[in-house]
Amino acid sequence: MAGYEGIIDREHLDDIEAIVRIRNDDPDALDHTTPNNADTTFTWDYERSRPALGKLYERAKTAQWNAETDLDWSIDVDVEKVIAEDITANVRIDPQRDLSGTCFASWGDKEWTTFGIEARRWTLSQFMHGEQGALVCTAKIVETVPWIDAKYYASTQVMDEARHVEVFAKYLRTKMGGEYPVNAHLRMLLDDIVADSRWDMTYLGMQIMVEGLALAAFGFMHQFTQEPLLKKLLRYVMSDEARHVAFGVLSLQEIYKEMTLAEIRERQEFAFEAAVRMRDRFLQQEVWERMGIPPKEAIELILVDDGRREFQKMLFSKIVPNCKKLGLLDAGDAWLRRRFEEMGVIHFEDWVDTGAEYELLDEVTADRTAAEAAVA
Ligand SMILES: [Fe+2]
Ligand SMILES: [Fe+2]
Q1: Which residues surround the ion ligand 2 when the cut-off is CB under 5 Å?
Q2: Three-state SS string across the chain, please?
Q3: Distance 300 CA to ligand 1 centre (A)
Q4: CATH number of the domain located at residue range(s) 78-89+105-367 in this protein
Q5: Ligand 1: centre distance to CA 106 (Å)
Q6: 87 forms bridges with which residues in the sheet?
Q7: Which ligand is nearest to the CA of 141?
Q8: Quick check: 308 and 90 in contact, CB under 8 A?
Q9: Each residue of 238-259: pLDDT tens digit?
Q10: Contacts of 95 (CB under 8 A, 6+ apart)
Q11: What CA–CA distance (Å, rounded) separates 350 from 345?
Q12: 107 CA distance to ligand 2 centroid (A)?
């Protein structure tokens, strides 16, 4: 018994056949409607009783930026050159490895560069779709959370997320030649988060899991890309995201203290399900299809590639410490700890959590302070 029957739709985490079976069978659809089961809660208690959320709200008000004027959209992006310079372990299978007899046997630099461009477009597209998920989920939190300080803060996040969708959409359309449809695993995860009636589950699914992963993935791309527009765009998006994850940690810490072990177990299972869906989506099956490579064969080769494995794991470098800080790792019989052990990501547990990191990552304020100092 693996211990997660009924939570994810397969018996073994690495059942690739089951992973690639889930696909977006309506890639041309321009909208998607999903049930939202939550009640709206008004509060008549306007007392500002949560100073940590109040502080975050003040920071959010002053750190707003304008996607049109704070980024230099006149920068010309030579995609082929950018990808050739950016090729890192997350794109290319280790060149030292013998790939003869595999679907990659005939691939040389040209194919890997084409793949790199498609993979970059695909990744930024899924970032964009995930950002829309955050926009919708945070608007939902404004309606469902019973605390006035949280409603205030969440309203600033709605604006942040609109800006994030805006920048990724504009970058994809004006610099990368267009976007990919939403990945089926990501869409299922967003549907699951929106469908849940409990307000704290929106936070766990979005602020802790999706945004925690986004923060790590943006950080990785930011570190490796030399493209100045994308680099600055990611720096600014990350400084917002760090606040969003902190919002999740601060809010859930308070409510989890009141919960029974049975209620916490449901949160542990939800976190695990979300983690698996996010891991599955990063296998980028649509890109392999577009390149004419059978996704199952490609993914089997990718999953044993050391560089790719490390990249997959690194995506959890924010999620695991945040789950630990929330007490989800070890509550009850430490069910979630064992799942993260199986996924090979438990070693991140003592990395810095995001409850306090947002002040360090506020690049928007840092740039403004530097600009003011230069004038003075
Ligand atoms: Fe965002
Ligand atoms: Fe966010």
Answers
A1: 134, 211, 241, 244
A2: CCCCECCECCCCCCCHHHHHHCCCCCCCCCCCCCCCCCCCCCCCCCCCCCHHHHHHHHHHHHCCCCCCCCCCCCCCCCHHHHHHHHCCCCCCCCCCCCCCCCCCCCCCHHHHHHHHHHHHHHHHHHHHHHHHHHHHHHHHHHHHCCCHHHHHHHHHHHHHHHHHHHHHHHHHHHHCCCCCCCCHHHHHHHHHHHHCCCHHHHHHHHHHHHHHHHHHHHHHHHHHCCCHHHHHHHHHHHHHHHHHHHHHHHHHHHHHCCCCHHHHHHHHHHHHHHHHHHHHHCCCHHHHHHCCCCHHHHHHHHHCCHHHHHHHHHCCCCHHHHHHHCCCCCCCCCHHHHHHHHCCCHHHCCCCCCCCHHHCCCHHHHHHHHHHHHHC
A3: 31
A4: 1.20.1260.10
A5: 39
A6: none
A7: 2
A8: yes
A9: 999 999 999 999 999 999 999 9
A10: none
A11: 11
A12: 37
Name the band, by pLDDT with cuts 50, 70 and 90, for residue 89.
very low
Distance 108 CA to ligand 1 centre (A): 36
Ligand nearest to the CA of 248: 2
Quote the pTM value. 0.94
Summarize pLDDT for 146-196 with one digit per residue, the tens. 999 999 999 999 999 999 999 999 999 999 999 999 999 899 999 999 999
Q: How far is the CA of 191 from the centre of ligand 2 (A)?
A: 17
What's the pLDDT at 88? 61
The domain ranges of the chain are 78-89+105-367
- Structure token digits, residue 89: 């372990």
Percent of residues, the chain, with pLDDT higher than 90: 63
Distance 350 CA to ligand 1 centre (A): 25
